[in-house]
Amino acid sequence: MHYIKTYNRLCMCIQHHLVPVVRPVCKATLLSPSHTDSSLQHSWWNYIRANKLSVQAQEKSWQQNTKSNSGLPGEKPQSKKDACKHQGSKGQDQDYVHKNKVKSHFFSSIYPWSTKVELAEHLLQSQIFNNDDLLVLNKPYGVGQVHTGSRTCYGPAPPPFTLQDVLPIIKEITKENYLSVVVAPEKWHSGILILAKKAKVGNKMKYCLKKSVKLQVCPKEFWCITRNRAYPKDRSYRQAALRAEVIDSSVKVSVLEFTPSLRRIKNRLVDRFYAAHWTLAESNTTGAALVQVGVTRTMHHSLRVWLSHHLAPPLGDHLFGTRVAYLLNTPVPVPHTRAKNIPPYNFKLLQELDLMPSIQDLIPLMIHLRTVTLSGFYERKPANQKERDLSCFTSLNDTKLESPTVTSLEVRENQQGGPNDEKKPVYDNEKDLVFVAPLPQHFKWTLEKLGIEIPASS
């Protein structure tokens, strides 16, 4: 029994690396009754103790070398001050390289203004249309209408100026007495900014925007660079609704619905809108796409919710981009209750944009308000409420109304062939006022880097 215990102890020592080199001794030799001499036992125990002490000495020397930051046996151990200086210099070098990559990137220089006057001059240089009634500008990225106090940021932080701060300067430069914002994209969108020089013109434009909703014509069309193409690739106009749902008793998120009940609509628990999208171009290498989206209303981020529902979140969207995950490079929907972490970008996409995963937050939100259509802007204004209701269904070519007693349903039947016809009302495009804004520089640069060619027809 004594030899068995000795053998077990020897195995434990070998298992815990207390004996680095052991001469080959078989189990039968240790357990054989012929080796009952006590000298054999003492020799084995002395061998184990000696090796155990040598291993402990090696561990102590290795710990001292690691503390002094000298792993090589030939080097002298450094002092604590030298080690701290060496580690600090390494961290400073890494921070210096990181800051240089951020500063030298193209996305870090998308705000060419630093004062209010420079922003006003930049807006006037991007003029699209100007007459006695309207002033249309191309709003740059990162400029909001008013100060909201929100800390959310998409891309590099812009200078803290808004349209409310710049409008008085624009009035002085253009020598206008009245300027009011009628159409303006969000802070993190670029695109068409329409300013009315008269109050009557502003009211007429608001009426045209409401009229386009009744005509099922999307007055605003956006261009978006998405992480992949939308599913389905093209989708015609469809009615949808947004509802607000509370998560974790504090956070409200927007959820898309396609068949809301009449009770929810009457109680205004949902906000209805029409939307459609078309995939204009795709990238063969990264899978990114250029998608055109038309919406009638942009409340509660309806545009981004629509894109994430169709598995095509725009680049730079870390709010609703979490609702899409990627399994073997295939987009998969994620429930809005579990969408918390944004999936990492494709390595090829970051490589084409000269980015690393550590600085992928520099990507701005790639949404641009490309087109604004004011339906019937050059049409004669309706005289009364009945004529206003009829004008939403009759053709704009025939502005004369024969009988004011004709109902809108009869006009729709006469022009579209029957009450069950689902075609949208006919209207004349020649009576519409359409504005098209050129793409900003960061949008063009991203398209060129990703290899997405803009179609000639658009």
UniProtKB/TrEMBL annotation:
In its keyword annotation, does this UniProt entry include Isomerase? Answer: yes
**Record keywords, A-Z:** Isomerase
Indicate yes or no for the key word Isomerase.
yes
Residue ranges for the region (Disordered) are 58-95
Which species does the entry assign this protein to? Hyalella azteca (Amphipod)
InterPro entries (alphabetical): PsdUridine_synth_cat_dom_sf (IPR020103), RluA_PseudoU_synthase (IPR050188)
One of its GO biological process terms is:
pseudouridine synthesis
**Protein name from the UniProt record:** Mitochondrial mRNA pseudouridine synthase RPUSD3 isoform X1
